[in-house]
Design a protein that fits this description.
heterodimer, A: 352 residues, mainly alpha, ABC transporter involved in vitamin B12 uptake, BtuC, 15 helices, B: 307 residues
């Protein structure tokens, strides 16, 4: 059932990806590179063992952010705070990872939950403002996303949290050994966060499609007015979706800290860059479906790694990947054009 | 202590920060009035900033930089128009697509031209106009010594007001935003009107980016826009989508920004003061939006598709 749905719907995102990649590679001609060579390097460099390991390392964070974004989208609101909630989750996990030192079997889940709590806390102000004062959540969540990395610098510089041995960069102390996620492939950095993320995607699918609360969330997203008349408290549903979504993004941030970096480096979270943002695009590309998000998140971690490889081997600037993401999102946003190109097949905007 | 903060310099920098914000906000207002909110203001400011620096660096002429910024702004607004007007795509998603392209493009350009990802070398840019006798009086100097773009912005604001409320085009823009279906049946080309409104907003946002880079910090840096495009949107929402109130809101936000920078200079020695003062304007903007709050005013329009 899921499989059939997936195949029939995946033409549209696939087409967007192909067009976006094509345009992205083609425009490298303007920065004085050979597009064919760039394409060749991109695809060949992805086949190596290191590339695949890097992909698997960055995949969970991206997937968590995609899940976080699609959950609120399904309830009819835009949570563009995902990047900020991701940062807060990472920050909370890094701080609690320093101070909590219990047996690993309790400590790891506890620190992960603390990260989720951080993300959820960051999602509450926009949700309350939306609920009580009907403030546009797009603007508030976005502005909060710009606040989060600055807050991260502030916290990471606090005495007792800052690593005094690292003078040149702003970083927290490394987390305790008992808080680290165990790795799957020893010595490579691929960790159990990968399994957690995949499980979470399936859980979210079951939550949204098979439980009564999930159905209420989707009903609110499809038609708030009708949902209200069916006796659904749409405001509570929206608030719940916001908090859960913040929690998911925070969980992703915590996974990154516990599994990959083991400390909060302020530099990696600067601006709006990073996995929080890729997660947003991945959610759109995945058709706002948790299972679709698995594939699209994988594609975006592939794109990120490919971008790094291009930077090393072809001197394409690192941020060029963000531009390609934008192009892909642009094609995703044009269902009418896609309909024309794919020939009459009924296509609708993601998630409807 | 308080006297140390409340100086004439604070007034000057309030106005310097208000001007680009008001340019972007008024542009966003025009686009919003026509029914296509320009969410991509943030990215366009960023790209306008870098292109202005590139053009100014290689030609040595700040005006050429401004023109380049305006052109790139118009181009990206046109792309946004293709997504949101011609193809009737989702306004938020389309705006974000353009934002992403701009966020990727700005550091890329910086890397290509200056081999540095985070910031560019300093450029001459614009300096404050000096009027021979008047500028020697301290108080008057704080009131009249600004970059040429500041004066341009004031003229642009007046022209925009006249355009919006006194000309045919302005009335068409407002009509297209109020009810595209009716407007279309009256023989007004809604699509063309929306394209024009978007391109106006793109040009103004590009110039705002040029003012930030050439007029204020004299270089481009990764944090050039730092959410200012979204603050501009917040400003016209706060100003209840009216030009004069929008400028008032921009003055408030400009003051907050100038105050935070002044506080950073005065209190910079306290641990963490830099970060706290950086966060304050953004947090206060959210709180102000929360205080005015309420209703339809803060909602965005839907794209229009001919049946």
């Amino acid at each position: 059932m899921v499989y059939k749905e997936l195949v029939s719907k995946s033409w549209y995102p696939l087409m967007s990806v192909l067009l976006g990649l094509f345009m992205g590679f083609f425009t490298t001609i303007f920065i004085g590179l050979n597009p064919l060579e760039v394409t060749y390097i991109f695809f060949t460099s992805l086949a190596s063992r290191e590339s695949i390991i890097q992909m698997l390392i960055s995949f969970p964070a991206c997937l968590f952010c995609a899940l976080s974004f699609l959950l609120t989208f399904r309830s009819g609101v835009f949570n563009f705070g995902t990047p900020g909630q991701y940062v807060l989750g990472a920050l909370f996990a890094a701080v609690f990872g320093i101070f909590l030192d219990l047996p690993p079997i309790i400590n790891v889940p506890l620190v992960l939950l603390m990260g989720a709590l951080g993300g959820a806390l960051w999602a509450i102000p926009p949700a309350i403002l939306k609920w009580k004062r009907e403030v546009n959540e797009i603007i508030t969540t976005l502005l909060l996303s710009f606040v989060a990395p600055i807050l991260g610098i502030y916290v990471a510089k606090l005495p007792g949290i800052k690593d005094p041995e690292r003078v040149n960069i702003i970083a927290t102390l490394p987390i305790n050994e008992s808080a680290k996620l165990p790795s799957i492939v020893p010595g490579s950095g691929v960790n159990t966060g990968l399994i957690l993320a995949l499980v979470m995607a399936f859980l979210l699918y079951i939550f949204l499609w098979k439980t009564s609360i999930g159905v209420r969330i989707r009903a609110t997203g499809l038609n708030p007015l009708a949902a209200t008349y069916c006796g659904i408290n749409t405001e509570r549903v929206m608030l719940l979706a916001f908090v859960l979504s913040g929690g998911l993004a925070g969980f992703g941030g915590a996974c990154y800290i516990l599994g990959v970096s083991h400390a909060y480096y302020a530099r990696t979270f600067l601006g709006l860059s990073g996995y929080g943002l890729s997660g947003l695009v991945a959610a759109f590309l995945g058709g706002m479906h948790p299972i679709g998000a698995i594939f699209s998140s994988f594609f975006f971690s592939m794109l990120t790694v490919g971008g790094l490889m291009l930077n090393i081997r072809a001197r394409v600037p690192v941020d060029y990947v963000v531009l390609i993401q934008g192009l892909i999102l642009g094609f995703v946003a044009m269902p009418l054009l896609m309909k024309k190109m794919l020939g009459g097949k009924a296509l609708r905007m993601v998630g409807t | 202590m308080i006297l140390e903060i409340l100086t004439l310099g604070l007034l000057t920098s309030t106005i310097s920060f208000t001007v680009p914000l008001a340019l972007a906000a008024l542009g966003g207002l025009v686009a919003d009035k026509s029914g296509v909110p320009n969410i991509a203001l943030e990215g366009i400011i960023q790209v306008g900033g870098i292109l202005a620096v590139v053009a100014c660096f290689f030609s040595g002429n700040a005006w050429l930089g401004t023109v380049a910024a305006a052109l790139i702004g118009a181009l990206f607004a046109y792309f946004l128009g293709i997504i949101c007007v011609r193809e009737a795509g989702d306004i938020v998603v389309g705006g974000f697509a353009i934002n992403f392209v701009c966020w990727g493009l700005a550091p890329t350009l910086s890397m290509i031209f200056f081999k540095s990802k985070g910031f560019t070398p300093l450029v001459e840019g614009f300096s404050a106009i000096r009027i021979p006798i008047l500028s020697d009086i301290p108080i008057l100097r704080a009131l009249i010594s600004y970059t040429p773009l500041t004066y341009f912005a004031i003229i642009a604001a007046i022209l925009l007001y006249v355009m919006l409320y006194r000309t045919r085009l302005g009335k068409h823009i407002i009509a297209a935003g109020l009810d595209p279906f009716v407007t279309d049946t009256q023989g007004i080309n809604v699509f063309r009107v929306r394209y024009i409104a978007l391109i106006i907003s793109g040009i103004l946002a590009g110039i705002a980016g040029a003012e930030y880079s050439l007029g204020i910090i004299h270089r481009w840096s990764l944090g050039l826009s730092a959410g200012r495009g979204f603050i501009a949107i917040a400003a016209y929402l706060f100003g209840k989508r009216r030009p004069l109130q929008t400028i008032g809101a921009c003055l408030l936000f400009g003051f907050l920004e100038a105050l935070s920078i002044r506080l950073r200079q005065v209190l910079g020695w306290i641990h963490g003061a830099t970060e706290l003062t950086q966060m304050a304007p953004l947090v206060l903007t959210i709180m102000i939006l929360g205080i005015i709050g309420k209703g339809e005013l803060t909602k965005f329009a839907k794209p229009y598709r001919r049946e």
